[in-house]
Specification:
The protein is mainly α. Helices cover 63% and strands 5% of the residues.
């Protein structure tokens, strides 16, 4: 059952969220027209709000099997219901739709943060609940104190001092001095200075918006921005700069301020890129994150993987891997929502951001007081631009700026300041409705109190009174028509702006799709090229190894053949007796000649022959019997017992080979003269056969002798001696 719940819960969640976004978007066109219809629509939105919140939290509870998640869901539902009911009872004229939208954004943020980290979700909920309770008093405060528009330089001083204190005494967070700890509570003052900064600009342009006022406001705004730049909080600095540019435009209605702001923004962006290392890192990761995926581009590539893997309905809560994205709770919350809750929920979230922006913009454009109009417009610009920075950075549309998604991302200072900002907007809307109601009440009272003249006896007076009443009605209808025309004109502007935004969004999506397609093609091309190169390298290495092995085999074969030729040549020379040994006429007693065998010798290493060739092959030794000892070139050659023509010897025979003897004669010297054994022969120390008996003295004297190969009969072991004439004697 648990498996089915986790697998199917994502579909109703996406359907409810999509229905909520569609109804909220359609309601934008009917803001302030029909209170009864708006009330019915709000009831439906509240129902969808609690359905989305319940499905999300209960899915996490079923997945985690922890009762804490169930209690946490109940506390959230109670706080949201209490906030909506209390706000509606205390301020009947408030914009209830905006309050519902705030609760929806908070619920989405709490769902995804709870899935990522329960402890952070609890902190976020506590801060949001405290902020919602405290800001209920903001509308009453602003209605009572009407001097807020006169505190121009007080706003400027408070904002500069707060930012300056953070710059000097603030704590570094991810390389930027943006936090300030007071009594154990860590705050980010720049989030609250945003509200004060908007109040300053609205107060500065309240009475006049001459070029002198614009220059004065520009200098003070530049101080705010430069302090933030010095603190390396470039995201907040950009939001302050954009708020100044657009509020200056709405106050002066001059387009060249927008162009000037665009130029200054471009110059500032270039300088920031040249000065700050982290800006260069973010730009590099934005241009080509795939080339630096292991370092600078890891965060944005993981975000893109999460967005692409979600699909229309997502992989399901607790089924994805958004925790692989660094700082996912604050900077990349949109990617986590897209992966686990699906593209439908993500698009509905963006629609909700636009709906909230249109609500704030409608409040701004329909208020006659310039201070509150500019304030509402500044809050609208800050809200939508911060949303754009967050979502654009997560989707690789723009470089990362490190700002949070209002009311959704994790961050106590961000959510608290945003709730306070919406309370100020609600206060402006309530004051607007109170003025409208006061004007209507006064008009009705004047009509009731106007005396009706008695013109029954004067037809002319009755006609004049009727014409005056008709003219008054026409003037009222004309005013209504003018208001209606103005409202339609504003609506037409909003429609055109919405169409342009929609077209721009489609263009961005098309560019993103084209870039993604091109990136996939490039990756496939690089992979194919690398595979082809690797295959070619393997083939080249194999061919080189085969060629080297072939050359080695040829070289070994040539060496073996050359060795074989030398051995055959040496054997032939030895057989033919081409090398005549030195002769010595021995006048002494005859030397007993016995069979001579070589001493046993250990070869340095057995000769290794290729498997395809047995070397040396057995060879017949030429006939005849030789029992001689030959000395030639300092080498001693000995031959074994009598051999016949059909006898053979192989490479394992004890017959010596030429190349196996050392060139040093003393190493091959015969054994020292020893006493005769019982069989009448001399033996050496190592040989198993009789020694010749040739002593050390004879060898030292250079004694070399050569018996006749023709007359010696080895079978009889006859003694041989030499006379003075060199002839043999037996």
């Amino acid at each position: 059952m648990r498996t089915y719940i986790l697998a199917l819960s994502k579909y109703p969640l996406a359907i409810f969220m999509l229905s909520y976004a569609v109804i909220a978007f359609l309601q934008v066109r009917r803001i302030g027209r029909d209170r009864e219809e708006e009330r019915r629509t709000n009831s439906l939105l509240i129902l969808l709000l609690f359905l989305v919140h319940s499905f999300g939290m209960l899915t996490i509870f079923v997945s985690m099997k922890d009762m804490r998640y169930l209690y946490f869901w109940l506390f959230q539902a109670i706080v949201f219901a209490f906030y909506l009911v209390l706000y509606r009872n205390l301020y009947p004229q408030a914009n209830q739709t905006l309050c519902i939208h705030i609760c929806m954004m908070l619920s989405l943020g709490l769902i995804i943060i709870t899935r990522l980290s329960f402890s952070k979700a609890v902190k976020q909920f506590v801060i949001a609940a405290v902020g919602m309770i405290l800001t209920i008093a903001v509308p009453a405060f602003m209605k009572k104190f009407r001097f807020l528009k006169k505190l121009t330089y007080i706003y400027a001083g408070i904002g500069i001092v707060m930012l300056g204190v953070v710059l000097v005494f603030g704590q570094a967070t991810q390389g930027s001095n943006i936090t300030w700890t007071v009594a154990g509570v860590t705050l980010q003052p720049s989030e609250f200075v945003k509200i004060i900064f908007v109040f300053y600009l609205a107060s500065a342009y309240y009475e006049s918006s001459t070029p002198r006022d614009v220059l004065r406001a520009g200098i003070i705004s530049a101080i705010h921005v430069l302090i933030l730049v010095a603190s390396k909080d470039l995201g907040s600095a950009l939001i302050f700069f954009i708020a100044y540019i657009f509020m200056t435009y709405i106050a002066t209605q001059k387009w060249h301020y927008l162009l000037l702001g665009a130029g200054l923004g471009g110059v500032g962006a270039v300088l920031a890129y040249k000065i700050f290392r982290h800006v260069q890192v973010r730009v590099t990761a934005w241009l080509d994150p795939w080339s630096v995926i292991d370092s600078m581009g890891f965060q944005i590539t993981q975000s893109l993987f999460s967005i692409c893997s979600g699909g229309p309905f997502g992989v399901g809560l607790t089924k994805g891997t958004p925790d692989k994205i660094p700082y996912v709770e604050s900077d990349f919350i949109f990617s986590a929502i897209t992966e686990e809750m699906g593209m439908i929920v993500a698009i509905s979230l963006l629609v909700m951001c636009l709906v909230i922006f249109f609500h704030i913009l409608w409040i701004s454009l329909n208020f006659s007081d310039r201070f509150y109009r500019f304030s509402a417009f500044g809050f609208a610009v800050m809200y939508i631009f911060q949303t754009f920075l967050t979502v654009g950075g997560d989707t690789k549309f723009i470089p990362l700026t490190g700002v949070t998604l209002p009311l959704v991302s994790y961050g106590g200072s961000s959510v608290l300041s945003t709730i306070f900002m919406f309370s100020v907007i609600e206060s402006i809307y309530i004051m607007q409705q109170d003025r409208i109601r006061a004007f209507q009440a006064r008009f009705e009272r004047e009509n009731r109190e106007r005396p009706v003249p008695d013109d029954s006896g004067d037809p002319a007076a009755r006609d004049r009174r009727m014409r005056a009443e008709q003219m008054r009605r026409q003037s009222l209808s004309g005013a209504e028509d003018r208001d209606r025309i103005a409202a339609s004109g504003r609506q037409a502007k909003l429609d055109r702006k919405a169409a342009l935004d929609r077209q721009a969004r489609q263009d961005r999506q098309a560019r993103k799709a084209a870039l993604d397609r091109q990136a996939r093609q490039d990756r496939q091309t690089r992979k194919t090229a690398l595979d082809r190169q690797a295959k070619q390298d393997r083939q080249d290495r194999k061919a080189a190894l085969d060629r080297q092995a072939k050359q080695d085999r040829k070289a070994r074969q040539a060496a073996l053949d050359r060795q074989a030729r030398q051995e055959r040549q040496a054997g032939q020379e030895c057989q033919a007796g081409r090398t005549a040994p030195d002769r010595r006429d021995r006048q002494s007693a005859p030397v007993r000649q016995t069979r001579q065998y070589p001493q046993a010798r250990q070869y340095p290493q057995e000769r290794q022959y290729p498997r395809d060739r047995q070397y040396p092959q057995e060879r017949p030794y030429p006939g005849g019997s030789r029992t001689v000892q030959e000395r030639r070139g300092g080498y001693a050659y000995q031959e074994s017992a009598p051999l016949q023509e059909n006898d053979y010897f192989d490479d394992t025979s004890t017959l010596p080979l030429m190349d196996e003897y050392s060139p040093e004669p003393q190493q091959n010297a015969y054994a020292a003269e020893r006493p005769l054994q019982d069989d009448g022969f001399y033996y050496d120390e190592t040989s198993a056969m009789p020694d010749t008996g040739l002593g050390e003295q004879d060898r030292a004297a250079g004694g070399n002798w050569e018996p006749s190969l023709d007359n010696i009969d080895l079978k009889d072991y006859k003694e041989v001696s030499y006379g003075e004439n060199g002839k043999k004697r037996y």
